[in-house]
């Protein structure tokens, strides 16, 4: 079983929100998942991106692969954290 960390869409037609989930790579985008580890809301002026860092690290250590979009969001969040220090 190949495990992926990717985003699952929810919300309404013009107000999409995303959940960060760990799932089997063969399951559909909005289908079954193993664990929910965060969420992303792109619509407010200050976009909201929250991820449980310890769980993300755990899954990556155990061989899970992040999607391209999620990698860029995590990288952007890390840059913001460094800039605010």
Detail the topology: elements first, then pairings.
Elements: E1 3-11, E2 16-24, E3 35-41, E4 48-51, H1 53-61, E5 65-66, H2 68-84
Parallel strand pairs: 1-5
Antiparallel strand pairs: 1-2, 2-3, 3-4
Name the descriptors.
alpha+beta; S16 Ribosomal Protein, Chain: A; five-stranded mixed β-sheet; 2 helices; 36% strand; flat
Quick description:
By secondary structure, the protein is α+β, with helices and mostly antiparallel strands. The protein is built from 2 helices and 5 strands. The chain is flat.
Protein model, in words:
The protein has 85 residues and is of the alpha+beta class. It has a single domain (3-84), classed as S16 Ribosomal Protein, Chain: A (2-Layer Sandwich). It is built from 2 helices and 5 strands; from the N terminus they run ββββαβα. Strands 4-3-2-1-5 form a 5-stranded mixed sheet. A hairpin with a 6-residue loop joins β3 and β4. The model has no long low-confidence stretch (mean pLDDT 91).
